[in-house]
Amino acid sequence: MNNGLTIGGLETAYDQLATAIDAVGEDKSELFLVKLALLAAQQLGDEAVFGDLIQRAQKDL
Fold it and tell me: What is the DSSP secondary-structure string of 36-60?
């Protein structure tokens, strides 16, 4: 798996995501996140890796 983002890159991604979630509003944030996830899965191009990411994201919620 590509571990290309630095801590600074992850912080930037987090800030961008938080800003976008705020911009779309609470009523559309879930739809936005699903759409973003599907676009990321398409870009990633590997359903097994995407499935692994889903499992990792579910842990410790």
Answer: HHHHHHHHH--HHHHHHHHHHHHTT
Whole-number Å distance between alpha carbons of 58 and 38: 16
- Tens-digit pLDDT profile for residues 1-58: 556 799 999 999 999 999 999 999 999 999 999 999 999 999 999 999 999 999 999 9
C-alpha–C-alpha distance, residues 48 and 54, integer Å: 10
Q: What is the pTM of this model?
A: 0.84
d(Cα 51, Cα 17) in Å, to the nearest integer?
A: 21
